[in-house]
Amino acid sequence: MSTPFCRHVGQELFKAVSRPQRASRLWQALETPQISQISRPQKYSSRPFTFRTACRQPVSPIAPKPDPASKARVRSLPVLAASTGLLTLLFTVFQPVSHEPIEIPTNVSSSPSAEAPIDDGDGDGLPRYRLSEIKEHGAKSDRPWVIYGDKVYDITDWVGAHPGGEVILRAAGGSIEPYWDIFAIHKSQYVRDILEQYVVGKVHSDDLENGRPLQNAIEDPFVSDPKRDTRLRQITQKPCNAETPADELAESFLTPNETFYVRNHMWVPVVDETEADNHGITIELPDGEVKTYSVGELKARFKQHSVTAVLQCSGNRRNDMTRYAKKTNGLQWTVGAISCAKWEGVRLRDVLADAGLSLADPGEDARHVQFSGLEAYGASIPIESAIDPRGDVLLAFKMNDKPLPRDHGFPVRVVVPGHVAARAVKWVNKIVISDEESTTTWQRKDYKCFGPNETKQDWDKYKSIQVMPITSAITRTRLRPETRTAPPQQEPRTTASGRMVQIEGYAYSGGGREIQRVDISLDGGANWDQAKLLDDTEQEKGARTWCWKRWTYEGVLPEVKDDANGEAKTTFVVKATDDAYNTQPESHKSIYNLRGNLATAWHRVDFNCKNC
Amino acid sequence: MSTPFCRHVGQELFKAVSRPQRASRLWQALETPQISQISRPQKYSSRPFTFRTACRQPVSPIAPKPDPASKARVRSLPVLAASTGLLTLLFTVFQPVSHEPIEIPTNVSSSPSAEAPIDDGDGDGLPRYRLSEIKEHGAKSDRPWVIYGDKVYDITDWVGAHPGGEVILRAAGGSIEPYWDIFAIHKSQYVRDILEQYVVGKVHSDDLENGRPLQNAIEDPFVSDPKRDTRLRQITQKPCNAETPADELAESFLTPNETFYVRNHMWVPVVDETEADNHGITIELPDGEVKTYSVGELKARFKQHSVTAVLQCSGNRRNDMTRYAKKTNGLQWTVGAISCAKWEGVRLRDVLADAGLSLADPGEDARHVQFSGLEAYGASIPIESAIDPRGDVLLAFKMNDKPLPRDHGFPVRVVVPGHVAARAVKWVNKIVISDEESTTTWQRKDYKCFGPNETKQDWDKYKSIQVMPITSAITRTRLRPETRTAPPQQEPRTTASGRMVQIEGYAYSGGGREIQRVDISLDGGANWDQAKLLDDTEQEKGARTWCWKRWTYEGVLPEVKDDANGEAKTTFVVKATDDAYNTQPESHKSIYNLRGNLATAWHRVDFNCKNC
Known about the structure:
The structure is a homodimer of 612-residue chains.
Chain A: H1 3-18, H2 20-29, H3 51-56, E1 62-63, E2 75-76, H4 79-93, E3 128-129, H5 131-135, E4 145-148, E5 151-154, H6 156-159, H7 177-182, H8 189-196, E6 199-203, E7 208-209, E8 212-213, E9 233-236, E10 241-243, H9 246-249, E11 262-263, E12 280-284, E13 290-294, H10 295-301, E14 304-312, H11 318-324, E15 338-347, H12 348-355, E16 368-373, E17 378-382, H13 383-387, E18 394-399, E19 402-403, E20 413-415, E21 428-434, H14 441-444, E22 471-479, E23 500-508, E24 515-521, E25 529-530, E26 532-533, E27 549-556, E28 569-578, E29 603-608
Parallel strand pairs in A: 3-6, 12-21
Antiparallel strand pairs in A: 1-2, 4-5, 5-6, 7-8, 9-10, 10-11, 12-13, 14-15, 15-18, 16-17, 16-21, 18-19, 18-20, 22-23, 23-27, 24-25, 24-28, 26-27, 28-29
Helix pairs in contact in A: 1-2
Region (Disordered) (chains A, B): 104-123
Organism (chains A, B): Xylaria flabelliformis
Domain Cytochrome b5 heme-binding (chains A, B): 126-204
């Protein structure tokens, strides 16, 4: 491997790390994309992370520590085998854009902050550290450490290059493993090899149990999560994913904060209430200009707006698709991964304009607005959505007239009405105007729909879900209390056929399109009638119709013959139509996709006419 | 009926006629809405048409002519019986908004321009006129006449109050009956009663045959229509409705002008090429301010833009709905009531701004933009569509780099990309910014979709079709020439099963939503594959994707068993998905509506695998 080649790759890596978009592409090229949003660390300098080692140590699996100032500790470098391929890949992916030689820093220091007793029972030459010592190397220390297995790593020099950004510091002072359980992409030899470069010691044997750190010393990343309302239907606890109970969905136009569905990809970041107004959002324009606004400044300087809008997970009703088509991957939401609230905050477009973006002509480089949250989640929306004067995109501080609950983004979240909720980034702390989409897996992979037959997922083939298609659901069915008495000459009623049934539910379409008709069938779709749409328009706020339409229906149960099992079942069906006359597909099979996204087929609820 | 009451109604009528929106509502209240767009005539003064007679002649069916200056001719006034109910209705509909008394003109003159020989064989005291004399009272004469039956009417005083506006002059100098055949709403006693007020004579007996004017003297309203390309599939000749032949639809991205589908509601207005730049468009703002632009002025003063956009009739594929669901009313289009062209003209929003409309804040009164064409067709779009900076709504002069063909609106038409073509008014000569939709039947009735069960059509229940939903169609299927030879031990192939079939077609979604996936099934929807989308993006112009996506597919015909008739049929199916992941409904039954609008279900084409 020639020196010019190394220098070239180094240049590219250096550029990559010094420019988030490029770094993101790089990371993506490396096929380790779970956390691929590089933030520009303020405290940690960005450094290329494999170049130095790869070029200097082309052969030996055991190399001397490159930092002459540190103690003679040994680093294992199995990374090299991977690196060769990696560099080839980099060379293929990145064409040179500049031939200016750039000096690659080599004096990277990884020295631990304190002398440690050598407890080298294995003869590995590594010092041993007590968990209490390691804990001192937390997120706020000058030299953050993490534990993996029984080894201790000084990640100081890695933080700046970590594709997930400073979120890695969440693990500092303790074990990184609970986080790798969340960000499963890390569980690869490739990532372990990177980490291995930074080993500084081992956990002291007194703090090990069966060769691993004591369990009670490993912090649960979710330990600070808020308590949730018991009415929420929990699907996963860590991270919290919980849906609004079905029979409360259409109960009120605005979903109460306590029962608003929760979709967390990770833990809930902790922002102290007294510090909320100091929380900052960094805005980066395509020309590299950066401006930071505190929440307090946003509130004080920009006009506040109220918008009522539904948020809906792309996986809402996924369980239906599993049931009527076949197995889908992902959280098995029923009908409750949707809620409606009144949001209050400042318009993103106003803030972007203030930050220096031309709303009239954002320019070719300004095609997407990328958001990152405190917990490392990231996503983006097209620039047109962000600056649309009628788009109502907010940086929201309030939800239903109260400060945002922690689960919903305290102290500030993005709200993108009419779009999939996955773009409404919570705990937002960074906004980048870019020529490309956010490079996170949540933008580029998770939220897409392939054809019903497509098993090979070519991620670039389809667009990320943004504006949502139309859907509807039955949320409650009940028999109306019987008032008629069967004439005496008739046999007593054995089924509910002929009785009145009351049904209620919601219908919603994205893009600000209003629901204009909800069709109901009590016999599986053979005959139709129209539901009564509730008029909630007085509560609606915003330039377009961003809200759901609640509906009710009363109808007579059809006569149903007993089936082979002696059951008398019928199926209630709902389908809706919006003002662009979009309607729902009939079957989940026809829209099946492995991820179970956008399970918007007619909603069917089986109803047993006996034993009612 | 008291005098104050009459005065009040008079005031209301006067206001109504002097203000088009109000007059339109009035006309609608009278339930004669076929032609309900009142234009403000420049030549003919607007006058209330029933008040004078109704209040002055409350009882007698035969009243003396109110104009003392004219000859003592008798007018039958059966209008009165209707008028009493009418006035009650008016009183109910219009609450007084002003109590200022307004003088109602009474000296309306209806005298014929020339003395005529009395040929009073019937003793009716009416003069007789030769057809040649009547012809002199054409549209450009000071006193236009029309013939109805064998009677002659001087409509001079009616033109200003005619709800359809000056289009009535199209009939001047000849018989009005061919026009009533088009505008069938006129065929009522009520309308005949109005006309009867203006009788001035009868057709001379020498020009009558069986009591009616000689047929060759009755002008065909369509006599000046242009010749059409013989490749167009004519559905009706008068007016011309003709679709693009299926196998030419996906042949080119831009449909040639000659084979672009034609949807005319009436005749094609005649505008001389040398006069094209003098053609005027009147723009009326909510405050009543009126500004007129000539085509020449529009071209000279405003920046011209090119936009490629599909136009599609809401009835495209209606024949499918008839076939797969049940009978629908309306033109039985197959897949060819859709075409794509490059349009060139000025932006409507630029012109409206110039005319004085505030684009930033149009105001509460500016909710719709109503368009009228020379032939009396009218429709409207929401103000948001009209002024959307990314809406690309044009006043277009050119189509595929040539002047608009006469069939497509020469010299100027509206183009509203992403919306139903019924809003893209041709031969436009008037634009009114209003607080309400156009009151024409084409806006308020014809283009709506009711539920599959709804037989009673409550027209106010649903919104007019504007932005179009997603659709797709197969436009051509053919077997690929066979290259394989059956192995000698096999029987000769008796069906096409196993052979390659080539399919092509289009997919389109309204609202600027791009098609991102086209699914094809060769077995009726059991199995799916994806079509290849043709890349026509280089030809696309506009802020959003207003065009169709052409696609092709090659697949192997499935094995099909013979049916009871010895046929081996399979069904090809296409369905598309746009970038908001809207998709098509599966069956026409589920979206059935009596008018057969928006027949967007999966497109199915039966294919007989034998005898190929």
